[in-house]
Amino acid sequence: MEEKEKSDFIRDIINDDLKTNKYQGRVHTRFPPEPNGYLHIGHAKSICLNSGIARDFSGKFNLRFDDTNPSKEEQEYVDSIVQDVQWLGGNFEDRLFFASDYFETMYEYALRLIAKGKAYVCDLNADEMRLSRGTLTEPGKESPYRSRSVEENLDLFARMRKGEFANGAKTLRAKIDMASPNINLRDPVMYRIVHEEHHRQKNAWCIYPTYDWAHGIEDSLEGITHSICTLEFENHRPLYDWYLEELGVYRPQQIEFARLNLSYTVLSKRKLLRLVTENHVSGWDDPRMPTIAGFRRRGYTAASIKNFCDIIGVAKRDSTIDVTLLEYSIREDLNKHSQRSMAVLNPLKVVITNYPEGNSEECTAVNNPEDENSGTRQVPFSRELYIDQEDFREVPPPKYYRLSPGMEVRLKYAYIIKFESIVKDAQGNVTEVHCTYDPETKSGMAGAGRKVKATIHWVSAAHAKDVEVRLYDRLFVKENPDDAEEGKDFLSNLNPNSLQVLKNCKVEPMLGNAKAGEGYQFERTGYFSVDPKDSQPGTPVFNRVVTLKDTWAKIEQKHR
User: Fold this and answer.
1) Is the domain of 448 the same as that of 549?
2) Count of domains observed in the chain
3) What confidence tens digit (pLDDT) does each residue in 304-352 have?
């Protein structure tokens, strides 16, 4: 098979295996999540890697749930993971599997190891077992139950399955080497007793395999050729190999790569769960969360996430990726495909005093200058408009070229206007700006080429639609959220301004009927998407996906 355009150390290994016909020309990968939470951006990297390798080498890709812990697993997580994998283009076809599909086989394999004298039932509790495991420099101590006979172990294990013992009363352990320098080989637990209903198996089982016992067996049974894991499983590989060799069954090749770490982000499921359960966010799909569901709801595209994963590639050493690279990938994709529109988030009324009352007209606006086939649209223009409050200053700062006394600005796609006067309320706040317009400066007219120093966006007051806009920002204020003061944890670094809700924003008429999931570039403001959860027909809610520029770079530079 020809070597593909993409190249990394994993693909190099696979190419070598194909040349030597190691797996009879097969390439078969898998993504094996535990259904104990929603997937995050780190999982996206693994999905794209495993499914991409299968695609590039005309192989197969499995989605398999390692559902071996009934106390933490839910069908909701299963459903969300299936949706996420499919959204990212992971094509597992009809190969959707569960570890629980193999429970009977795993049990039979355990009996086989017991019969060989390679596994035993142990009565040590969790604390006693922890104390007996030793340290990195000292060997562990053998369990007093390690010398039980095969017959006694078979009997006890069968009774464990029947439910005769309480949680934690007994475990099944592999009999390997309590003096091994690899602590994972110091008689690891294979089964523990858990009297809890399983989300698929219900109450059929009360003993459950550990991840380390189940994982390699699942790969073996499915015929996986290249078992691609993150680096924390490197020291577990000798254990997986030991199990499969003792059983005398097919053994895949495990390859480890560096997991994704992202600045200003936590990717620990335990910490993400705390954010949800302690109501720091609205749920797993909160648009501030680094979950795939959160990204999708916020308006990120699958293409942008896959492109981000391609850019960062795969490596053998852990590192932290700057979140601005992810934001760059989002902007690059949205810039090419997003419909342009005008929206005023903090409206200030402008009255054009020399424009005829009751009149209105259409201005031609470009839908997307990056796409020559995107066409144009008609935007209504009238005597009364809304502009953003940031685009007017009664007393302008230095180098302020937008609307202010004595200044002219161009209204995008429309006319040049000039400041005339202002109206204030009782508190001294500017409520209206009165201007005049130059009727010869509309696009296509003789005066359209007249130069001014600034162009601003606007919306016709008579035609504008009121919408809610949610300005999402990074969830944490520190590059490393775990860098907290003594006595505090990562939650102390939450960004208090990660969400700002704006009511009654003014938008072009067409946006009043925007549909869930549709994305737009609000000119001069950022990229926005219609929230698929809280929007209703005719009343869209817009989420800010990402700003037009990296505003955090300026903030960080100022702090430095």
Assistant:
1) no
2) 3
3) 999 999 999 999 998 999 999 999 999 999 999 999 999 999 999 999 9
Q: Is 34 a catalytic residue?
A: yes
- The mean of the pLDDT values for the chain is 95
Candidate list 269, 274, 349, 418, residue with the active-site label: 269
User: End of a domain among 429, 457, 485?
Assistant: 457
Q: What is the rounded CA–CA span in Å between residue 486 and residue 256?
A: 34
Q: Among residues 195, 228, 257, which one ends one of the domains? A: 257
φ and ψ at residue 126, rounded to 5 degrees: -60, -45
331 with 302, same domain: the answer is yes
**pLDDT of residue 449 exceeding 90:** no
Q: Write down the catalytic residue from 259, 271, 274, 377.
A: 259
pTM reported for the whole predicted model: 0.93
Q: Which of 5-19, 146-160, 468-482, 516-530 is the least confident region?
A: 5-19
What sections of 313-440 are H helices per DSSP?
323-337
| Within-domain flag for 399 | yes
Residue 1 inside a domain? The answer is no
Which helix (H) or strand (E) segment holds residue 86: the answer is helix 75-87
Q: What is the pLDDT of residues 491-500, one digit of tens each?
A: 999 999 999 9
What residue numbers bound the domain in which 208 lies? 9-257
Give the C-alpha separation, 218 to 262, whole Å: 30
How far is the first Cα of the chain from the last one, in angstroms, to the nearest whole number?
A: 52
Residue 551 sits in a domain whose CATH number is 2.40.240.10
Residue in 4, 22, 26, 34 annotated catalytic: 34
Catalytic residue check, 72? no
